[in-house]
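Entry: Glycogen synthase
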Amino acid sequence: MHVIHLSVECFPLAKVGGLADVVGALPRYQRKLGVDAWVVSPYYDKSYTKNNDLQLLHEGSFMQGSEHLSYQVLKDPEDALGFPLYIIRIPGKLDREEVYCYPDEAEQWIAFQHAFLHWLKSKEIVPDLINCHDHHVGLVPFLMKHALEFNHLADVKTVLTIHNGQYQGWMTWDKAVLLPAFDNWKWGLLDWDGLINPLATAVKCCDAFTTVSPGYLEEIYVQANGLEQLYQTESYKGYGIVNGIDDAYWNPELDTMIAKTYKKTSVKSGKKSNKKAFCGDVGLDDSLPLLAFIGRFALEKGADLLPSIIEHIFSNAENKISIFILGSGDDDIQQELHDLLDRYPGKLAVFFGYNEALAHQVYAAADLLLMPSRVEPCGLNQLYAMKYGTIPVVHAVGGLKDTVIDLAEDQGYGFVFTDIAASSAAQAVTRALEAIADPTVLQKIRQKEMALDFSWDKSAKQYIHLYDRL
């Protein structure tokens, strides 16, 4: 079976969030199971494209409205990522440093999708299935069926994977002239509430859609930023598949980015060594339990609650815990956290930004990981944390609810709170501190969660089963 994954993020080419981790791992595991899985992504002026000798495979051009666009298809001839990665470069559109936040983003993604389909047609590539990831490539299922130029792909099956349904790619109808010529009778498939909505279009036109956890699938039927009715109507297409993690990259036994490698049987000494090294670097007391947060400073991540959560925790346990924050985003949240640094010297440390090696060191050093998310379609941080013997403290939402079982329940290994409030999160942290104060309980939880299987092997098989059904 030949499957193409189409995504604007793919680790290590370009990473903003979990989308990149998924697309950078799932195809490799599918290939191990006999699927000829490719990835196609845009070109970015980043270290991957600068440091790799990419081979030029194809050149072509097309009209986007009144603009003539030329494109190139490039590839690493060694397939060093474990799967073929094809990169589409369009001068002036897909050759920039950042992935998002450009004012002509709609034009960028339309050009990417058009170039992708134009390349398939030019080289007579007809895969068995195309797996589209998020709204950025949501027009592809429509164009394959209804664009006059690409109707030879009409019978190719399509799967849409929704990593975050809050973002839908809305654009006004004046952008329609930028699309390849399509059957005008089908304009309604592009429309949702008076706008072109690529995510809604993909849901209408794909053969199946997946969410990145069963819990998130249930949530979008009742809360989906305006698409609830659509998901309900198309529910027969829906499947929830929990993301996996790349357990070769996220593995404390093999990790070259941490101070000392360790495994399940040596987790106690391994965590102690990593915490001592890490806390020494960031100025925290390594004799205290370490609570960490890693993520974007955004409302959906509950990051606006962090300052209040920190104050609640320190008001009850100031001398019993250290806190480390790794993230960036909302300026107001950053300022509030910066102000707290002066109030809690030696107890709170913050790194503003994102650093991949530092994230690995945090997972290896921390005792607890806080995820107060309002929206979390799957969540990967809690899976990484458990792989490193770090105990998650999470809000019961989306994939967090699917992957973390509260210690109070049978077979539990984490701490879950149901109210999205600073006081509830702080109470869950306090409960966790009380539990792990017993070294026997701490060791038992660590070994239980490190034994859990969240690898891509299981999830990749579920995707392939869906592909086979289609």
